[in-house]
Amino acid sequence: MATTQKTAKRYPLNVEGLSIPAIGLGTWQSGPGEVGKAVEAALRSGYRHIDTAFGYRNEKEVGQGIRASGVPREEIWLTTKLDNPWHKRVKEGLDKSLENLGVEYVDLFLVHWPASIDPEQEGANDGKGEVFEDWDFVDTWREMQKLVGTGKVRAIGVSNFGIKNLERLLSDPSCKIVPAVNQIELHPGNPSPKLVAYNTSKGIHSSGYSPLGSSDSPLYTNDTIKAIAESKGKTPQQVLLAWGVQKGWSVLPKSVTESRIKANFELDGWELTEEEVKKIDAIPDRFKVCGDDWLPIKVFFGDDE
Ligand SMILES: NC(=O)c1ccc[n+]([C@@H]2O[C@H](COP(=O)([O-])OP(=O)(O)OC[C@H]3O[C@@H](n4cnc5c(N)ncnc54)[C@H](OP(=O)(O)O)[C@@H]3O)[C@@H](O)[C@H]2O)c1
């Protein structure tokens, strides 16, 4: 189960020859003037996986950070995401992200949310407005599939899909390509065992976002996490990341603080015991960082647990 060399670990995907590094730098809420330096510091510290999105409004600076690091593009796993107001313009959305990032291709292009928002509506870029009545994520996926083979993406996937929406997508006759990844919220406060098992049963890799519990995380003061961290001489953050990797998903810790970026990557040469993993699994307190209240439609139906 456990792996001592977590930073070199990769998970195979359902695309021949492709595997995703277990640890990636997250960049949501990483602002201007800091995100480029964070990406550069991460790559110089050994990270080889960067997670961004058009919606984070920082792709340009992420691209600058990649170039400043001196790490060759082909050594880096780069993920970006199609924003909700771009669902009817998938090709254009990808081209815009590639232009922002200053790269020829991304390794993984995700449908950020199963919500196709009309870009003409006021506030559309903040999730407000209305969804198209004549277009939903099945239509978006049909267009996503056309990107494969263009050389602009190595894999395509989804994010924030619960079981209900995945079943609908996978059972639609137009679905010829099973998503390589479903990027979902995963931490001890939202461990989603049913959704992870469903993803696995369909050959879809689960990638865990907000692995530390996001900003002001209540996990850092959780007694179980604290006790395990203290007994091992590790930080609560390192314990949370080791737990994710040992559970079998990739983790995407975000930080704009160089010392934290480095510490979050110090995961080799030690592991959680099976008993420690089980203790973390048994933490009863539930919380979710990203719900669907900010969207005009529901996307979670209790099927993301
Ligand atoms: N697909 C989606 O819809 C979706 C949704 C949410 C997130 N994501 C992805 O997942 C990534 C991670 O999620 P997240 O940004 O919500 O949260 P996270 O990685 O769980 O937590 C980030 C927070 O933890 C702090 N932190 C990081 N390392 C620390 C350390 N060693 N000690 C103390 N504090 C530390 C960071 O502060 P500083 O930065 O100030 O150091 C920041 O406030 C995102 O950045 C994004 O790439 C995707």
From TrEMBL:
Identify the stretch annotated as signal peptide in this record: none
Which GO cellular component term is one of those annotated? cytoplasm
Location(s) in or outside the cell: Cytoplasm
Specify where it is mainly localized: cytoplasm
This chain belongs to which protein, by name?
Answer: NADP-dependent oxidoreductase domain-containing protein
Family under the similarity heading = Belongs to the aldo/keto reductase family.
Q: Which UniProt keywords apply?
A: Cytoplasm, Oxidoreductase
| GO MF assignments | aldose reductase (NADPH) activity
Q: Which SUPFAM superfamilies match?
A: NAD(P)-linked oxidoreductase
Coiled coil (UniProt feature) = none
- What are the positions of the active site? Y56 (proton donor)
Pfam families the record matches = Aldo_ket_red
The superkingdom listed in its UniProt entry is: Eukaryota
InterPro entries for the chain: AKR, Aldo/ket_reductase_CS, NAD(P)_OxRdtase_dom_sf, NADP_OxRdtase_dom
Q: Which residues form the NADP-dependent oxidoreductase domain?
A: 23-283
Q: Summarize where substrate binds, as residue positions.
A: H112
- GO BP field: alcohol metabolic process; arabinose catabolic process; cellular response to stress; D-xylose catabolic process; ketone metabolic process
Location of site Lowers pKa of active site Tyr?
Answer: K81
